[in-house]
Amino acid sequence: MTFATLQFVRKMTSSAARTAAIKHVTVIGGGLMGAGITQVAAATGHTVVLVDTSEDILKKSATGIEGSLTRIAKKKFADKPEAGQEFAIVENLKTKQELFSALDKVAPNHTIFASNTSSLPITDIASSTARLDRFGGLHFFNPVPMMKLVEVIKTSQTSQETFDTLVDFSRVLGKHPVLCKDTPGFIVNRLLVPYLMEALRLHERGHGSKEDIDVAMKLGAGYPMGPFELHDYVGLDTLKSIIDGWNKMEPENPLFAPSPLLNKLVAEGKLGKKTGEGFYKYK
Ligand SMILES: NC(=O)c1ccc[n+]([C@@H]2O[C@H](COP(=O)([O-])OP(=O)(O)OC[C@H]3O[C@@H](n4cnc5c(N)ncnc54)[C@H](O)[C@@H]3O)[C@@H](O)[C@H]2O)c1
């Protein structure tokens, strides 16, 4: 997919008054993450332009955002129902480099670029542009409207001003920012993905059924979901692409070793909740 496909644009605005440094936001990719980021940015008073490759996808994003807002309104106004009436694209380095390189040529000088990548080095993505000081990472979590954390990634070239602006932007969105270095997986995925892979390996060795491992981690460690449930929720293809990428970077690291079972399920198209089957079946 190339920059030429960025032709369908939908604009969303909110009337809320704002004073923060970032006022206009462009989100590239209106899938799972992009739609969520658009929703929280618009709800906190930013002008948001959402870009995707077809009008149909944008319609789906808009319907998804509407559904999410309805659920939030229902919760928020449970007692009073009448009252309730520049960042995602696929996880591929070359695609992201092509996109940011093209945007770099047309975006105003003061525009800050941020990538929501889960696993690619921000430095590698930024290297396709001439604005290394105005490039950082903003890593949101799924579902974006519910999850409070944003990892703000500062590369060795990100300026302090850019970093402070991204931290401020995260706070304006109502999120809790944490500072991360540009290292694989930042904080959360660096700890979470090896744990998920270890759960798979434990199961592959025949040392526990997936059901028992899930129950054990929920009741024994107090986790809200077991590792196999979380695999299905995140998407097996997403986890495979993360682990394959890290394995390529550090082939000797046993924590980053691929899993035959994960590879098999992905090859069979069993990607988790989104396809109706992963480790478990969904109706
Ligand atoms: N899913 C997660 O939990 C999660 C969490 C944090 C970060 N991320 C990262 O966010 C990014 C998006 O993930 P997602 O789960 O939302 O994927 P997704 O497949 O739901 O959405 C990607 C969207 O990008 C669009 N797109 C692809 N190429 C494009 C182009 N050239 N121009 C415009 N739009 C284009 C697609 O049409 C699609 O709508 C990935 O880099 C992923 O690693 C995902």
UniProtKB/TrEMBL annotation:
Gene3D superfamilies: N-(1-d-carboxylethyl)-l-norvaline Dehydrogenase, domain 2 (1.10.1040.10), NAD(P)-binding Rossmann-like Domain (3.40.50.720). It is an enzyme of class 1 (oxidoreductase). Transmembrane segments: none annotated. It catalyses: a (3S)-3-hydroxyacyl-CoA + NAD(+) = a 3-oxoacyl-CoA + NADH + H(+). GO terms for molecular function: (3S)-3-hydroxyacyl-CoA dehydrogenase (NAD+) activity; NAD+ binding. Residues 24-84, 88-183 form the 3-hydroxyacyl-CoA dehydrogenase NAD binding domain. The keyword Mitochondrion applies. NAD(+) binds at residues 29-34, 52, 91, 96, 118, 142, 274. CoA binds at residues 68, 75, 118. Pathway: Lipid metabolism; fatty acid beta-oxidation. Keywords: Fatty acid metabolism, Lipid metabolism, Mitochondrion, NAD, Oxidoreductase. It comes from the Eukaryota. Residues 185-282 form the 3-hydroxyacyl-CoA dehydrogenase C-terminal domain. One of its GO terms (cellular component) is mitochondrial matrix. Belongs to the 3-hydroxyacyl-CoA dehydrogenase family. This is 3-hydroxyacyl-CoA dehydrogenase. It comes from Scleropages formosus (Asian bonytongue). The gene is HADH.
